[in-house]
Structures are given as structure tokens and as C-alpha cells.
Design brief:
Layout (H helix, E strand, L loop, with lengths): L7 E5 L6 E2 L6 E5 L5 E5 L2 E5 L1 E5 L2 E5 L6 E4 H6 L3 E5 L6 E6 L2 E7 L6 E4 L3 H9 L10
Parallel strand pairs: 1-8, 2-7
Antiparallel strand pairs: 1-12, 3-6, 4-5, 6-7, 9-10, 10-11, 11-12
């Protein structure tokens, strides 16, 4: 398994916001007015006042961050549906979208679930899913 902070996006259960350390897959990068985000983790504390869009998801952009993270909780609240597969896959989350399934594989080295954004299938499914497409789907 190869971990590349620019191309790897983790699904994270311990955060309530989406964030990106790379702007490679972001559009509409902008500085927010007022307060920004202060993020604390085992690696330290960082802050940012930048946001960008990843498809219909709004992410905090923090070039000082150490990973691209999608909040599991926030995605569920936004209407994304997940299942967990254990037997033949070694454990992975599957995000079901109207454009197809996105598989977050388990990184054995780190123990977290991720998707490699270099995979066109994953990127297209996540980027092309918009809120209106969920009508009649979930």
C-alpha cells in the first residue's frame, strides 16, 4: 500500500468537518470571512481560513495539514449512505451514490479507510454526486 497525502482521501469517524491538505481536487478555493478552523490532533494544532469545493462537498483547505479527510458523520448527514463489508474485502466502507459505489479500502499500515483519488471511478462518483440526485435514491 502506498500512502500519498495528495492523492489519498480518508473517511474519518473522529471529525465533524471535511478537510484537505492538497488543493489538487478542489475548486472554488476562497478565503472565508470571520473565524476560520482550528484543528487539533496528535500531530499538533493547525488553523486555516481557506475553503474549497470537492464536488458538492465543502472542505476546509489546510496546506499545513497531514491528510485529506472526509467526515463520516458529515457525509451521512448530507445524505450519503454507507455499508461496511468484512468477509472477502478485509474490511472496507462502501459509499453508495447515484453515480456508483465508492470503496474506501482499509489501509493495513495505518488502520484507516481511504480512497485513492487517482482512481477515476472513485473521483467521478464523488465529484459528480450532487444533492438533487438523491431524490428517490435513499
Amino acid at each position: 500500500e502506498i500512502y500519498n497525502s495528495i492523492c489519498t482521501t480518508f473517511i474519518w469517524t473522529c471529525t465533524n468537518f471535511h478537510s484537505a491538505c492538497s488543493d489538487e481536487h478542489l475548486t472554488n478555493l476562497r478565503r472565508v470571512k470571520g473565524g476560520g478552523l482550528v484543528s487539533r490532533c496528535n500531530a499538533g494544532t493547525t488553523q486555516t481560513k481557506m475553503k474549497g469545493n470537492f464536488g458538492n462537498l465543502e472542505l476546509w483547505y489546510n496546506p499545513s495539514g497531514i491528510a485529506n479527510l472526509l467526515s463520516f458523520d458529515k457525509m451521512e448527514k448530507d445524505g450519503y449512505e454507507f455499508t461496511y463489508q468484512t468477509k472477502r474485502t478485509g474490511g472496507r466502507y462502501v459509499c453508495h451514490t447515484p453515480n456508483g459505489d465508492v470503496k474506501f479500502e482499509k489501509c493495513n499500515k495505518l488502520g484507516f479507510h481511504y480512497v485513492d483519488m487517482r482512481s477515476n471511478e472513485a473521483a467521478v462518483c464523488l465529484l459528480n454526486t450532487v444533492g438533487g440526485n438523491y431524490e428517490g435514491y435513499t
